Amino acid sequence: xxxxxxxxxxxxxxxxxxxxxxxxxxxxxxxxxxxxxxxxxxxxxxxxxxxxxxxxxxxxxxxxxxxxxxxxxxxxxxxxxxxxxxxxxxxxxxxxxxxxxxxxxxxxxxxxxxxxxxxxxxxxxxxxxxxxxxxxxxxxxxxxxxxxxxxxxxxxxxxxxxxxxxxxxxxxxxxxxxxxxxxxxxxxxxxxxxxxxxxxxxxxxxxxxxxxxxxxxxxxxxxxxxxxxxxxxxxxxxxxxxxxxxxxxxxxxxxxxxxxxxxxxxxxxxxxxxxxxxxxxxxxxxxxxxxxxxxxxxxxxxxxxxxxxxxxxxxxxxxxxxxxxxxxxxxxxxxxxxxxxxxxxxxxxxxxxxxxxxxxxxxxxxxxxxxxxxxxxxxxxxxxxxxxxxxxxxxxxx
Length: 398
Fold this sequence. Notes:
The chain has 398 residues and is mainly α. It has two domains: 22-113 and 162-196, no CATH class; 197-381, no CATH class. Helices cover 86% and strands 1% of the residues. A hairpin with a 2-residue loop joins strand 1 (70-71) and strand 2 (74-75). It is elongated, with a radius of gyration of 29 Å. It comes from Thermonema lapsum. Keywords: Cell membrane, Membrane, Transmembrane, Transmembrane helix, Transport.
């Protein structure tokens, strides 16, 4: 009877927690819970780490290339290579500001030059037609000029709700947080870059010896897939910028470069990004022409159609050519799985969650596939199981 009880105890232990795969799953759940709690309570620090990881992934190849460069047989010190990579990064930022600051300034001047009284006068006729349509079709009994009056009151309420003092305090607080965050990001990124393969070494040092083969294979595949994904995203942004800028420039749409830059950056947000980019293009394109010349409803509709055609062609190229190359070859994921991952990311963290959904999905996909493959390919789990069964027999015999 004691033998049966001993066997039963060993069997329960083996099924519950002594089985290696169960132990790994429990550890994974605990790790994910800890990461979620850390992100929830220390969101700023988590965002700094994520941004630093992205920057280190971008600047890492530059640092390694500079470090391997030899001048008169002397290799460049790694700390100097890191500093030069930061200078190159800041050089790109300054070039970006120098190139696009005049365009941004023109947009601000354009907004400041808007004459709301003139816009309201131009909107009287279309609003009157809308009122007539609603009265005839739905018997709503809207008085003439009521829609225009409602719009005027809504605009006044909007400006009254904006308090200059609160706005100044908000901007001041944002500037302070942005300055501190920038210093923290570059401080963390510096140490990530200074020690070669810092993240790789940190992850591999946390792997137990018994799971070393599985862990090394997992880390290698994650690094390879994420690097391919980041490179694909960069190529996608360059392609979208080129297509939109070329198409709008050929159609003589003002501020084509500004629209193209916004569209390329907004496209980082899956599904929602193209809508934001197209809407921005319509607003900037139509408003910039309408404020400098008379633009009839028919001409505005034709202009909007031309802008939409450019964005439609861009999305066709993106969906049929760029995304299959990026997601199918780099991430190696099914479109339905990508959609579900993006949906979960949107519910958890909004726009940022949608941006990071695919990389996070890639990491979990690699980990799960490696765990499944390790059971078949590696002998670690089989050895542990045989040892546990042997210990169980010894316990039952006692």
